[in-house]
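Hi W.,

Here's what went into the run:
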Amino acid sequence: MDRRELLQWMVAAGGLTAVNRLSATHLLALGRDAHRVTAADVGRLKFLDAHAAMTVMIAAEHIIPASATPGATQANVTAFIDTMLDGWYPAADRARFLRGVAELDARSVNRFDAKFMNGTPAQQIALLEFFDAEVTALRSTSDAAANDHWFAMLKYLTVWGYCTSEVGMRETLHSYPMPMRYDGNAQVRS
Amino acid sequence: MTSDIAPVYDAIVIGSGMTGGWAAKELTQRGLRTLVLEAGRSLTPEADSREHVQPFDMPFRGLGDRRVIEARQSMQKRSVSFDEISHRFWTDDVDNPFSTPDDKRFDWFRARQMGGKSVIWGRQVYRMSDLDFEANLRDGIAVDWPIRYADLAPWYDRVERFIGVSGQAEQLAQLPDGAFLPPMALNCVEAQVRDRIAARYGRERVMTIGRVAVLTALHNGRAPCHYCGPCQRGCSTRSYFSSINSTLPAAQATGRLTLRPHSIVRALDFDPTRKRISAVRVIDAQTGAEHRYSARIVFLCASAIESARLLLNTTSPSFPNGLANSSDQVGRNLMDHIKWGGATGTIDGFTDRRVIGERPNGIYVPRFRNVAAKHPDFIRGYGFQGGAGRGGWASATRAPGLGLAFKERLTQLGPWSMTFNGYGEMLPHESNRATVHPTLKDRWGVPSLHIEARWSDNELAIHRDMNVTASELLDAAGARDIRAHTHGPSTPGNANHEMGTARMGRDPRTSVLNGHNQAWDALNLFVTDGACMTSSSCQNPSLTYMALTARACAFAVAELQRRNL
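Here's what came out:
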């Protein structure tokens, strides 16, 4: 089974929960693929150190995984997140983000006896779903509080970075290149 | 350092934007050697348009360089068309300070470059009608306009034919039709909304496609729009009207135009015996050197508040309160349009339909309040702009989930929503004014302004009514989940329609300019930017500024030929 078949099978089986039923070999193949793409990029980052960058990269790929179209890793989302942390966010937000990455590791060690990046994909996804649920719970009472959560920041940047990337726009969203015309009554892409 | 330069020009135009470009075109085409003084840098469509830069080619993917912007453009960034690319077309707030009272914020959007704010304007163009020109007289407000629609109609024609305006004729007395290029299309949902509003309201409330200075056909050597989207970043095909896309090249083609960028006009010299401007004093923004230029006539087109600033900063024994200010009206009657009233609703159906391309235009609902029946709570009225669309991936940035199902969500379009946003008329009040700040100066040592403006009860009543009638329109359209806007009124100035600070009138004691935009106190000075406006109407004003400029140029040249100037 190659990676594309594997991912198509995952989609057919119902998405995320299917990860739990994959063999360790398949999961490692997924993980290695993601790691290979970005290892060279980590050295160019301005804010994230290698450990934080790898953690962000793995988490972002779980949020927007590769399928028939590229995932967050191939869209180089980690570099965008690094640029935003380095040059855009105030110091308090940057510190909160790094505390979140540390908390992700601490929770992973506590629960699975391994740092996040060394866990199995299923373990990694379980941890991310835990934080996603925390954000959702906060959102039921306060959007502002939810948006301040480090994982909300990670997800916002992952989605923004992916959807404004060349591969994301071209291959997943089909929003590039420009259509050069206006049609206000076009068929939705099937 | 002052260097005197011999008067080799027939006319000087101060400002190169919306009206300065028109003055340059009209004056040069009528045979005048014309010098245009622009405070900012040179700009050309070929070298400076950035509309096709993709998000992934921007460091912050369209979110802007937050730290630099907050440090240098904390006020300019409030404009709706300010972004990571277009920020270069707004001024630096640190170099160009002004003050307001702490509890009365005013948004003063400024552009210093060849083309001025015509590079970044919203491009909506609507004629005023006699409902507007007669309004002050009818209501006993401020002073009467010295002109009526018939005076301006041929000049609206002339401007529209040259700049290219796409739009739909609607035969409404309160919004005269013009010389239109083919209209842009309503999308499928907007067309249904229009038809349903017509079914309930007939000709009382009409929804149409916006009238916009963007080409839908080849026009005067400029290409039609290709629907790429971000007009505020420039236009390499010159498809939207700006002075650098249209009027300045036409002026240049006469061989009688001289453009001088980096030229900050500090003051005007006045000859009290001849009641004439004798020279224009310019600071070279790059070298700091001062220059003087002379000409037979001067057109002041620096934008409403800058023009008032120049007049107020030009004091002399004849005019201790500022040039051409014997009426004490310069800087007063500052107006804008009140915004942020309206509503949004969801339109069911059309789930297999989408929009392709970025239409640089929306819908328009012409004013319907106080047109036939009198409203009990306020005078004047407002129009709506807006449109229908489907949300995309942006909503997923704050949505739960991760993995393949979440990724799939990024590609899904949300339901159709329809929005109406009001633009309401602001009444002129003498207390809404700009004055010279006693100590604050800009980077070049020119005294800055203190600006005080607030909405009156009439504007606030208009703002409240926008929420009511926008909801009614959505109800007529069959929308569900109708949500009136919950934010308060916009900050004065935020509509980018500042005007009124050197008004036209019929009496030199109560107005600054006569019916030809000529200063009562300085006969060779014409002010034709938004400063001249006697009332604001609710329509986007640039078309009227341009028509008034073209008309004033014809008058000035005729007066020169009659040897009256």
